Amino acid sequence: MEAKSFHHALKVRDDICIGCTHCMTVCPTEAIRVRNGKAVIIDDRCVDCGMCLRNCPVKAIHIEHDDFKKIFDFEHRVALVPAVLSGQFPEDITVAQIYSALMELGFTAVYEVEHGVEILLEAAKRFVKNPAANQPVISSFCPAIVRLIQVRFPALTENVMLLKPPLDIAALHIKKLYTDKGINSDRLGIFYITPCAAKIAAIKSPVGEEWSPISGVINMDFIFNKIYKSIKQNGKSESCYLPKIDPLTSEGVMWSLTHGEATPIQGRCLAIDEIHNVIDFLEKLENEEIDDIDFVELRACDESCAGGVLAVANRFLAVERLKNRAANLPSVSGPIPSEMSEESIVRSKEYLINHIAIDDVNPRSMLMLDENMAEAMKKMNQRNRLLKSLPQVDCGACGAPNCQALAEDIVQGKAGIEQCFFIRNRQISSGKLNMAGSTAIIESIWGKKKLKKPESENI
Amino acid sequence: MVFEFEVQGGDFATAGNASSQIKKILKQLNVDHRDIKRIVVALYEAEVNIVAHAFKGRIIANIDTSEVRIRLVDEGPGIPDIELAMQQGYSTASSEVREMGFGAGMGLPNMKKNTDEMHVTSVVDKGTTVELIVFINQPTT
Predict the structure, then answer these.
(1) Is the predicted ipTM greater than 0.90, yes or no?
(2) Could A377 and B24 be called an inter-chain contact, meaning their C-beta atoms sit closer than 8 Å?
(3) Does B20 touch chain A (CB under 8 A)?
(4) Quick one: closest CA in B to A292, which residue?
(5) Which residues, in sequence order, are CB contacts of A156 under 8 Å at separation 6+?
(6) Does the beta carbon of A134 lie under 8 angstroms from any beta carbon of chain B?
(7) What are the tens digits of pLDDT across the range B50-106?
(8) What was the pLDDT predicted at B141?
(9) Which of A286, A371, A373 has its CB closest to that of B40?
(10) Where are the domains of chain B?
(11) According to CATH, what is the number of the domain B2-135?
């Protein structure tokens, strides 16, 4: 069973939030309302896509990550790094330099997430080919998309590929490596460097998995600054200790980019990035308007993980750099390199394949007006009546993203009709509401400050 | 609850709009997602049939807590032999329609498969009425 409450890494900082409508109107799941002059995220609806963070004009929305010092709670400190991190730096900084800087920061080992692809790709091909699978199979890679499907497209939960993404496979491999060496899990800290909020949510409250072996998560923008500073200060080549790590495969480097999965998985595969594009596509898929597709790769961010909210580099340049990196690497289907290290993921293939499955992804539709259908029908009638009296301006001044959302909030007892500016105006002119009453309503939505006259102003 | 939608014959670009609207309503009413899927798959087929074959049509969806009953009434050429049309692979769609990926002759059989009851009545040169019935919230399902 999945937990009733959902962990979200996206947090609103009340001390910075100015109470505007930017995040509320761009949220693809209508998960934000404004109350007391601050944005409030509705936990059940949020899918951690990060659209709010991108659109906040004052940077009041941030991604809560673990304190970097937490790594020192462990004797063995592994940085689990997605390939997209190497795409953040200019071409003249090598991958080895980036990872050696991570070691200097205090990690005892660096491991790349996409080694998991060496295990996953074969299993994914098998999963897609299995005649018992619901076509098209939808990738489980992007946690924001898996959550989006759960809340908005419940019928499609049956199409999700029930295999761990590369991150979880790599983390499991690391855990096994250390356990095999006799190192207990309380001495091992695995820290993932994340390009987005959704991955944090997936680690803190996994879908289809009981637990995650990852001990903590650190934001990519934070670690980028630390690495860059270290490289600038320590020079590029001298004294830098190059960690010995296995090279990734070209498929591995490309995996988190758009077409990264769709290209190597065989059959008719489509790749769609950016959450609105994904929503449009899922609408059609749910009606079975589209058929004969074997596999769809869906990513919440434009240019996939290169466009993650915590990625610093321009996403197109990051993609270019990663493509260049991949061009020099062997293919996953090529011969196993003769110099396979002790730590190569291929060595624990059997164990990982046995643990690659995840449980069913359950729907948790957030669209219903009431659990009881008869009640829901009453509320829908009520909503439709309300909607006729609302102005259809979708101004957001009521603290809800649009008139329909306000009407739905009202029938669910979460808002009042007088929150609508137009209705209030009608009520004042008919004598139903006085100025003081109107002021109190505005303050309950937008806080006290917005109605106060600034000292410098003479309007 | 009753909802009505207009469908324009020949307008493939917007085919599926009524199905999407009804799907959204059913989700808001907390109908089981498996039932929604059956309803919408049948309804989409029926909606495309109007677009492909008729001049225009209306979709009237009647929703209550035990069943969803959708009537699709079109003005069009009608179906001369309903039994024949019910056979898999039988289609009168023009090559133009087939090129767009429709008209494989799976429409009516697929609609029947996804519904609990289906009634088709037709008058040649006047039009066709299709009624799709799906029982919902059944104790056994």
Answers:
(1) no
(2) no
(3) yes
(4) B101
(5) A138, A149, A282, A285, A286
(6) no
(7) 998 899 999 999 999 999 999 999 999 998 888 888 876 777 777 776 666 666 666
(8) 45
(9) A286
(10) 2-135
(11) 3.30.565.10
